[in-house]
């Protein structure tokens, strides 16, 4: 049985359109192209099976095909019901990758796709939000026996992994790709910043300049969202629970307020905390007529959508990916993309050049786990700095940018405690 016959996808006839998308992304991912050329020769993953759960769009497809070209059998599923692109799934399935995914599956289908991916008994995994790891540690621990280890893409997933490690329940080593410098400084900040506003702008077709944007959370993703909002001409309010981050937001020129106060002023709201219930029904009671709510955290738990639905006297879809809730007093509140990741559910995600770096980190980290899983042990490990630095160096080289190197004398000086 070939990969297309094994796959569960929406429409195989969409493969041509999906291939065009994948090729466009690949043409703008020079670091991954450089890795691909070497991996096609070395084939370090020959004989292994790799399971991937990521936002299944064109850039992710390129990652899957690079890992396939490294010799692995690749099985992939989505990590969010609304971010999967059916044409990309069809193209992958037609070209040697087994796919269990389709756009907007039911919760039962979504879970079944995860389990079917794991039932192929992978040797290595790449996870996003910890979905594969959670299933392996809760519902199907029998499928974890062959897993050597893997990589995690997000803050949310790393929190899950750290909780498992803390209790001694983690069954295999995982590398925290999200915590690499070449990930959060660029993907989380510049990728999220641009893609969130791409998603909001294309969905609403409304002006941002002169409006008030409330950014809930000032981690690296929040920094990016706030920076891009400011660049679009918005007045930006940041809400935080961390005093250091709140201080940084203040020094960066933003107004810092509690969410209860910010709720009264915002025109746009973007949640980027990774936590649940950061915008509650109580906050919505004081929002302006026409307030627009969106989420850029991994799961759709940051905005209390159930509370909003309970408060509303009517609800309708007024535009693709925009739900209008009319409250008892006549005020209207708009929710984008069902409260799911607005940059992927209502957009195409991060720019290809940004994901080039992130997926290069994933590729090299996966190879590191494969080569060192017995030595690492059952723990969450940071990306080795050598990999981090290598990815950024390759990225600079792809742009024709050169940097300096330390002289032998400078290296000796930095390594010595004597200041002469």
Automatic annotation (TrEMBL):
Where would you say this protein principally sits, based on its record?
A: cytoplasm
Entry annotated with the keyword Membrane: no
EC top class named in words: hydrolase
Q: Where is the S-adenosyl-L-homocysteine hydrolase NAD binding domain?
A: 188-349
Q: What is its EC number?
A: 3.13.2.1
Q: Name one GO cellular component term.
A: cytosol
Query: Which cofactors are required for activity?
Result: NAD(+)
Instruction: Give the reactions, separated by semicolons, that this protein catalyses.
Output: S-adenosyl-L-homocysteine + H2O = L-homocysteine + adenosine
SMART domains recorded for this chain?
AdoHcyase, AdoHcyase_NAD
Cofactor binding note of this UniProt entry: Binds 1 NAD(+) per subunit.
- List each coiled-coil range: none
List UniProt keywords, sorted A-Z: Cytoplasm, Hydrolase, NAD, One-carbon metabolism
**A GO BP annotation:** L-homocysteine biosynthetic process
Gene Ontology molecular-function annotations: adenosylhomocysteinase activity
According to UniProt, this protein's pathway is: Amino-acid biosynthesis; L-homocysteine biosynthesis; L-homocysteine from S-adenosyl-L-homocysteine: step 1/1
Please state where this protein is localized.
Answer: Cytoplasm
Which residues does the record give as NAD(+) binding sites? 154-156, 188, 217-224, 240, 275, 296-298, 343, 350
**SUPFAM superfamilies the record matches:** Formate/glycerate dehydrogenase catalytic domain-like (SSF52283), NAD(P)-binding Rossmann-fold domains (SSF51735)
Residues where substrate binds: 128, 153, 183, 187
Sequence similarity? Belongs to the adenosylhomocysteinase family.
What does this protein do, in the record's words?
May play a key role in the regulation of the intracellular concentration of adenosylhomocysteine.
This protein's name: Adenosylhomocysteinase
Read off the lineage from the record: Bacteria, Bacillati, Bacillota, Bacilli, Bacillales
């Amino acid at each position: 049985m070939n990969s297309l016959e094994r796959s569960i996808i929406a429409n195989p006839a969409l493969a041509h359109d999906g291939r065009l998308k994948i090729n466009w992304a690949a043409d703008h991912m020079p670091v991954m192209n450089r890795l691909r050329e070497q991996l096609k020769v070395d084939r370090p993953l020959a004989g292994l099976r790799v399971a991937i759960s990521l936002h299944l769009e064109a850039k992710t497809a390129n990652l899957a095909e690079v890992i396939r070209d490294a010799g692995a059998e690749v099985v992939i599923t989505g990590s969010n019901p609304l971010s999967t692109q059916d044409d990309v799934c069809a193209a992958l399935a037609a070209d040697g990758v087994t796919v269990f995914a389709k756009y907007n599956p039911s919760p039962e289908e979504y879970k079944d796709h995860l389990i079917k991916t794991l039932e192929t008994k992978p040797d290595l995994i790449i996870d996003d939000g910890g979905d594969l790891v959670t299933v392996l540690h809760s519902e199907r621990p029998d499928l974890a026996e062959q897993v050597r280890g893997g990589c995690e893409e997000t803050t949310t997933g790393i929190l899950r992994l750290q909780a498992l490690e803390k209790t001694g329940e983690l069954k295999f080593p995982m590398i925290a790709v999200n915590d690499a410098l070449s990930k959060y400084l660029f993907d989380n900040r510049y990728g999220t910043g641009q893609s969130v506003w791409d998603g909001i702008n294309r969905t609403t077709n409304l002006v941002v300049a002169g409006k008030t944007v409330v950014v809930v959370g000032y981690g690296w993703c929040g920094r990016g969202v706030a920076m891009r909002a400011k660049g679009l001409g918005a007045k930006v309010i940041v809400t935080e629970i961390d005093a250091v981050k709140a201080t940084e937001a203040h020094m960066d020129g933003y107004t810092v307020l509690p969410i209860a106060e910010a709720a009264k002023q915002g025109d746009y709201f973007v949640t980027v905390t990774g936590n649940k219930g950061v915008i509650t029904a109580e906050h919505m009671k004081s929002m302006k007529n026409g307030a627009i709510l969106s989420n850029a955290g991994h799961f759709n738990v940051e905005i209390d959508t159930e509370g909003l639905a309970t408060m509303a006297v009517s609800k309708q879809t007024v535009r693709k990916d925009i739900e209008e809730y009319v409250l008892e007093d006549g005020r209207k509140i708009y929710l984008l993309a069902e409260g799911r990741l607005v940059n992927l559910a209502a957009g195409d995600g991060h720019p290809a050049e940004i994901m080039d770096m992130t997926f290069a980190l994933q590729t090299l980290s996966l190879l590191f786990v494969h080569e060192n899983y017995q030595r690492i042990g059952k723990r969450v490990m940071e990306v080795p700095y050598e990999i981090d630095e290598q990815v950024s160096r390759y990225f600079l080289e792809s742009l024709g940018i050169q940097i300096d190197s330390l002289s032998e004398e400078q290296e000796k000086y930095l390594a010595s405690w004597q200041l002469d």
